[in-house]
Structures are given as structure tokens and as C-alpha cells.
Design brief:
This protein is of the alpha/beta class and 341 residues long. The protein is built from eleven helices and 16 strands. It is globular and about 60 Å long.
Length: 341
Amino acid sequence: MKTLISTALRYQNNRLELLDQHQLPDCERWLHCDSVEAMVAMIRKLQIRGAPLIGIGAALLLAHLAEQGWSEAQLREAAATLRDARPTAVNLMNCLDRMLAVMDQGAEALVACAENLFEEDVALCQRMSEFGAELLPQDARVLTHCNTGSLATAGAGTAIGVIAEAFRRGRLSHVWVDETRPLLQGGRLTAWEMCRLGIPHQIQCDSMAAILMRDGQVDAVLVGSDRIAANGDFANKVGTYNLAVNAHFHNIPFYVVAPWTTVDPHCPNGDAIPIEQRSAEEIKGVSGSFGEVRWSPVESEAFNPAFDVTPADLVTGWVLDTGVYDRDDIVAAIAAKSQPA
């Protein structure tokens, strides 16, 4: 397989390596991934994260294992195990389905498919960035949630890709970064990317976003997605629904930025999206390169869904690599795409 390099994933010298996002921003450590078990563990620990990047990472691992001589039966079993690692992220399923479609053609076909998935993601991120940048007013102040940049994709990112392109064009003046409880993907990862890009930004707790909106400090909200249902409802990092409700109340445009591979035409609405439930310990404390700190009683229980679902009625527009859609357009486009050729 040829050399493939992105911010958080690289394949070179016959090695697949992933940037350990659990350790950012204090420590930039690359992890060697050469087994299905290692990939699944990294996905569940959020050492690799972001729906597009998870799918690409899984595809590259399968291609690597095929080059190491794994049989078709072994590879199919590996794909099934990887599919279960992150149930909400439909990009993972789409990438694995692309690989499964050519699995009977041998290692060379799997390598070509994985390489194409990587390169396609770079290109579609650029298209989303350009479409989304056109929607923002001059000197826009944008609020974003979780991390949707080059740490989550092979390319420039989804929502952060739009932010970076708007900044490059001189259309963006400031970014409000939701801290993103409980795992702080905004405060740790998005802020790290903003620093690398040189974009003016401030971090705020998730519960402070409504104050900024009330005071006229937000011109648009940009978020990513892990799955878009056929009616336009979408799942994203928990806390997104709160933002959508607040943006709707304050008449602020609310945009979802995601590749077409995030669309699930077989999922009728948000109620049908599976939501991953994570460990209570993520809410009761925090861990990172500094170690672990617990601030809640051991015996207390916690409610910790990884994602929430935002209804389509609260969305201003869907920014995909195929264009920008309103509510009627996205439903029609998904219906048309799901029809057999």
C-alpha cells in the first residue's frame, strides 16, 4: 500500500499508525495498529475518533491484513468485529461495505479500495469546506461543538473544514469552541486545531452557549454528524441538540456539515438511530496525560449517552460534499439516492 498521511492517521513503511487523541493536547503520541483487537480498543477509547476517520482507519487495517496474507474468511470476520466497535457512526459501516464488495477479488483490490476511501475523503472535505464557507456572513463569529476537523477525517474536516476555509478567505473573525462534556473534545482537540490553524477562538463550557447567542455574539452554528436519517434528523456528539434548540430560539442559522457517507437512507428517522451508551466513569471524573481524577461519589450512577439526536425541524441547512440542502431538498435527495439504479 502506498504512503498515506493525514493529521491523525498515517500509513508508511508497511505500518499503520494513529495519533493518540486521548493524550492531546499535551502529548502527541503515535500508536502502531497492526491488529483488529488494537483498532477496536482504540476506537472504544477514542484514541481514534470521528466517524469518517474511524471508517478509513478500519479500511486501511483490512487492506494491510490482506497484504499480510489473511484469508477472505479471516478478513470477513475482522470486518464484522470492526463494524460493532462504534454502532452510531454509519461511515464505519459504509467503508466496511465498500471493502466487503471487493473482498473476493484479493489483496490488490482491497488495497485500491482503501486508498480510494482515503483520497475521496480528502476531496470531499474540500468540497464541503467550499460550500459551507459561502454560507457565512463577512466577519462571521461561529460556534462549534465537539471536534470536526482534520483529527476526525483524512482531509480538512467537516464543520472545522468550513471554518478553516472561511478564515482563509477572510470571512471569519472568531470561533466559539464548546468544551464538549464529558470528554472535552472541543476544549482539547478543536482548540488544538484552532491553534495550529492560527484562528482566533475562545473555549466556553457547553452551558454558556445560550448566553453568547442572547448577547448577539454568534452568527452561525456549525456541527458535524455521525449519522443522518432519511428525514434529515441527525445524531452528533451529545450536547448538539441543546445548541440546536438555543439557536432556533435566538434565530441563529444552524448548519450540519457531513459527507454523503454519513447519510443512512435505511434509517427512517432519529428514533431509529442507535445511540452508544458509555461508561459512567467519564462523567464522574476525567482522565488524560495527567492521570485520572474522580469528583463524584463512587456509588452514584450516571446517564452518559455518547450522542443525541437533533430533529430536522431545527436545522437551517445540511452541507454535504454534494451541495447544500434545505429540509425538503435533503429528504428528496436521500429518497432519490436510495432508489435502485
